[in-house]
Amino acid sequence: MYKHWFIPMKEVGTFYSATLIGPEHLEGELKLLYVHDGIDYLEYSHLLTYQTSIIFVFIHPGSSQDRWATYRTDGAYYRAYIQSFYQELVPRVEEALASINIKHKGLLGDSLAGNISVALALENPQYWSHLLLQSAAIMKEEIDRFSHIEGPLDWKVYQSVGRNEDDYRSIMTGEPLHIFTRNQQLNRELLQRNATVDLNILDTDHGWVYWDQDLPQLMKFFK
C-alpha cells in the first residue's frame, strides 16, 4: 500500500509531505504509526523492516529551516502544522484506511521530531494509544502543557535517551537542549498522569546509529 500527499499549512502559505506505506496484504489487526523526520527514518534506519503489521505515515517538513519552524514550540509554523495535521492529514489517512481494522495509533519522533510528537499527542490525547520517543528534544513549554491536562492519560510511552545528551547543542543555534534532564522531567509528568512508560537510559550520544540500534526494543513496545 502506498500513497503520497503534499499537505498544505494554509495559515503560513506552505506545505509538508506525507507518505503512507503499508503491507501488501492488509489483513487482521494492523497498527498505524505517524513518523516525524520521516525521510530520515527511511534513509538512516531499518524501520521499514517492521512493515508486516504496521502502516507508516512518514512526514517530512522540508528544509532544516522548515523543520526548525515546524517542530519547535516557538517555531513560526508550529500552530499551523498542528492544525493542518488534524484537519488535513489525519482525514486523508483515515479515508485511505476506512476499511482496515486499526488496533493502535502512535507517534514516533527523534530529537525535535519528538517534541512535535508530544505536542500533537497533547492536542488530542484520546486519539492516541502510543507515543514513541528517541532522544526527544522536548521543550520546557511542552512539559508545562501537562499542567493543563485533566484526568489520566491512557498512553503507552516509550522513551530512550542517552545519559550524556545534556551536552548536545542545537546545530541551528548552538544552544544546549538539556535532552537528558527534560526527558526525566517528561517522564515524571507522564507517570503522574498514569501513563504506562518504558524509560530506557542508554550510554549513547545523539545520533542515528544509536536510534537505529534502539528500534528493535522500541518496536517490540509498539505491539
Automatic annotation (TrEMBL):
Domain of life from the UniProt record: Bacteria
InterPro entries for this protein: AB_hydrolase_fold, Esterase-like, Mycobacterial_A85_antigen
Gene3D superfamilies attached to this UniProt entry: alpha/beta hydrolase
One Pfam family recorded for the sequence: Esterase
PANTHER family: ENTEROCHELIN ESTERASE-RELATED, IRON(III) ENTEROBACTIN ESTERASE
Annotated protein name in UniProt: Putative esterase
Organism: Tenuibacillus multivorans
